## 1
Amino acid sequence: MSVPSTNGQAAPALPAVPSPMELFQRGHGIDVLIPTLNEKLHIEEAVLNARTVGNVFVLDSLSTDGTQEIARKAGAHVVEHKFVDYAKQKNWGLENLPFTGEWVFILDADERFTPGLREELFRVAASGAGHNGYYVNRVVLYMGHAVRHGGLYPSWNLRFFRRGKARYEDRAVHEHMLCEGSADYLKDEMLHIRREPLHEWVRKHVRYADLESTEWLKMRMLGQQGAAPERLFRDVLKYRWYLRREVWPRMPFRPLLRFAYMYAARMGILDGRAGLRLAALNACYEYMIGLMYREKRQRLIESRARGLPSNTP
Amino acid sequence: MSQVGPIIEVELDRDRYRGQRPPVSVVILTFNEEANIADCIKSCAWCDDIHVLDSGSSDQTVPIALALGATVHTNKFKSFGDQRNWAIDHIPCKHPWHFHLDADERFTPEVVAEMATILGPGGATTPHVCFLSPSKMIFLGRWIKRSAGYPNYQVRLFKFGVCRFMDFGHGQREVPQGSVGTMVEPYRHYGFSKGLADWLYKHNHYSGREAEEGLLIRAEHRMSWGAMLTADATRRRRAAKNFAYFLRFRAVWRFLYNFILRLGFLDGLAGFHYCAMISMYEYWIELKIREAQQRWTAETDALVVRMLSTPEPAVMMPPAQQPTGTAPQEARS
């Protein structure tokens, strides 16, 4: 790939794959932002891996397990900031951290750059041309398998962008990046390592199910309507959103359907025991949501019967 | 789904039991039980010696218990067996017989009347040192008669000084010094009264403890066909539980056992959900056992190393220059 120089002057051409230091010296450096909360299992590895790409900034939400110290020792610039929600935290980091590179990559502590992705990033950063943002694909590693089926792959997220050209949309969960100008997709992928024990998984998903079932309750019992379908069907994203928010909660046998979808329809069976496990755990999650929704609905009905205010679940 | 404040079928009052009050002190173990404790103590209204043994609740459990006339003791929780033995050793109970009621359980007038009859005045009538009590599990407002394993005997009523407890799985088992009697009248068990999220969090912990027990039992090959065929229901149940630790697909077997063999389908939708939730819990136990036996994390780590390896070591950026000893916020320019 030819590498145009920034100012069209007689700067010597960069090698096809420049080193991260060369990139910084040319003004095309990459800063890696890692938001963390209690990530002592992952953070050292993540920082060392990310330092092969650029300067590493760990934005910590006041961890209590010593994440900050481990990150500092591994060579990251660590800043602590109180967490409100994911979008606000990362936007704060984008605005306030002392970045010096032209590019920013947002990496989670359990994610890693593959050698291929690293080279691709260097080429894109050095080329100076092209787009302001790049979507990166991610493969889950679980139980010794790279999970490439079951609806979990590919998984595209806009993580790599010119500094100042992208920020997170302001919403509490399922936040997305908004990018100025055009965006493209990178060919190589990063790794998402899942080594959490089942205990952790259950703890997290009981909490998610609690939140999700409250959303369902708001929608079905408290009259918060989604947009009308006839307008939605023209827009694929909104159509999917409509299915997920409006149709799916009304389906019977959701846990079984979810399992069948992941394991059979999306071929999770090809991922071996990891595929089976993920499909089964997702069915458990679906079941927990349904049960909690029933529970909350019953409480709402009871409190309405007792004449109590019922505008909150 | 669960009842917010379980309604006691018959309101109990102290006067009604005067004269036939059983010689029993009640001990209630609690930890953050504000949702349950009031109804629980109210169902003990027949008793003139109610003790709450709290393990450091951060909610309103203790004030509520005190307001309702219970004596409150505090001891750090290690395990159920340990906590119950602490209660035996340290709580000055007035009566020779103790009943350990959980906060999500309720007495009924029938249970109280039966205790009065079998123990007699002063508690000297019976030759036994402790009694197995049946309990009715209530879920979604319904008695889960079949799949919850009724009568599900537990030793709750025992004589001071001749019965102790030892830990087993996530619960405890009794160690009686003498013969064990059996009660007929069931107390009520509102196992879901604190909400499903709480039940699930709790069973996340329980499944971990059960998995540890299962690993131990597997290592010791503790399995007895004889005990599984015995006439003694409690021994049979425990032998079956040991046997279950050797099975694969525990969740499936448990569901079929509860829902079909034990006729759980006759308990309606509540019965189905009960079976399904228990089976999910069994699935977690099985996964945790296998997690401890297998080296999945190590395999994942090996895969990571494989996927990240390069012919030559990658060039790294120098470590960030940070002044040490200053507050992180000041460190940024």
Note: Confidence is low (pLDDT under 50) at residues 1-14, 325-333 of chain B.
## 2
Amino acid sequence: MSALIQSQANETFVLNLGPQHPATHGVLRVKLTMDGEYIVEAEPVLGYIHRMHEKMGENRTWAQFLPNTGRMDYLHALAFNHGYVSLVERAAGLTVPERAEYLRVITSELNRVSSHLLWFGAFILDLGGFSPLLYAFDDREHILDLLESVTGSRLTYCYFRFGGVYNDIDDNFVPGARAFIKRLRERMPMYHNLVTKNIILMKRLQEVGPISAEMCRKYGATGPVCRGSGINFDVRKHEPYSIYPEMDFEVPVYEQGDSMARYMVRMDEIEQSLRIVEQALDKLPEGPVMAEKVPKILKPPKGDYYHAVETARGSFGVRAVSDGSNTPYRLKLRSPTFSNLSLFGEACRGMLLPDALALMGSLDLVIPEIDR
Amino acid sequence: MNCGAIKENLAASGAQAVNETEYARKGFALDVQVAPEQLLAAVSVLDAAGFFIEAITGVDWLGEQAALRKEAVAKAAAAAKAKVEAAAAAGEEPPPVEPAAEQGELAEDALEAVYDFNHYEALCRVTVRTRVPRSKPEVPTISQIYSGANWHERETHDFFGIIFVGHPCLVPLLLPEDADYHPLLKDFRP
């Protein structure tokens, strides 16, 4: 009895969040040490869906690894496709026909919009608003239909090949994409009226979960997380790849560093992606979609190579070590959310639990990409 | 901030080799080789210059020493053969066959820890590598300089068994909590 009565001044308890919890969007567990409603310590526990993609890379050929890339970040699979094929093309010295590069950018930017739409719906759902999810999924459905007609799948795309893309677009794709751009541009003001300008949302996000630029640097945060903290860093501008240098678009940057800033970055990015798609559709050249002389058995020369691309969540990098054989000697996959989540423990110290969940939602977590 | 200045500072910090690489071909600008003792100095230089940490990983070079020796033996044999042929072509007496060089114990294969750093403003990806023997893979931790290194080092320890000396909590991150195997080692058998 006495042990119960003698309560200590700073009494804390451990709260287990997940691994099956709607707010973690997948199997992520967070061990929280709480002082009442306030978080003293938060420790994410990872690895529940770790599949060891890097080992799989070592025991299959360069081309056989392609489907794996679509299964890490299932929401922006095409960017992961893009990162890997670009790396192998860089290593093997392959050139890609211009039309293929345009198709890659068009499809992966559409995919980015669909990823941001899903994040938008799910994030507002985390904060307690149900209906925006339904609107976002309605729009997202159009993108999935468009991409299905080109790539043959709706989620885990594997559309890019070394030296091009595997399938040219059909006659309905360009008008369909233009109609979608028009549609989403008309819907964006509605989203802003319905959600962004909502006083409840503002109160939930403004000045909640501040992340400083210095914290981003120490943890290696990229993507909307660092751009919400005033860092103008986008791989598409920083180390341009594919046809991005020919595109006219802006990188939205917000200085505040709070959850609202990260929200605004993504909402602005949807519009910028639409701009890129529109320009690429205008300029889309005729021609082949596959390079002619791609060897059946690819053997990149000895050495190590790195290639980074901008995914919806940040910079995805592939580091490959080739020993000159038809399988990679080593394949390192640097996933953006892994670094972005690593700052969560420090960022949410001293916060209220519901605020920490808002912060977690604003990081836009995709667990299979963290666990790989 | 430019890559040239960083190159000089890294060389001054005691790195074994700082090589410029062809960015378009390789995807990184500087390739830095350091001894494990010099790692902290090199990373501090990058921290002071405002770099952010991109990733840490490892590479297992099992069998590298044997391959190098095989290559050297083949080279020596080819050179000797060329000598004999040259002598035959000149109509001279072939030189006496030299006995093969004494083959000592193979040097131990290495585990390599690879650190990628990037800069938010300058286009300058820096790759820092350090090699340690497979039997005693100990590298100092850099988590006190870059807090983000904490998870990357835990992951590298999971996969390769590289021990980051001084790490606050080197327990499995992605593997099960009781994992005592390192799946990315080349001699790993499930």
Note: The first strand of chain A starts at residue 13 and ends at 17.
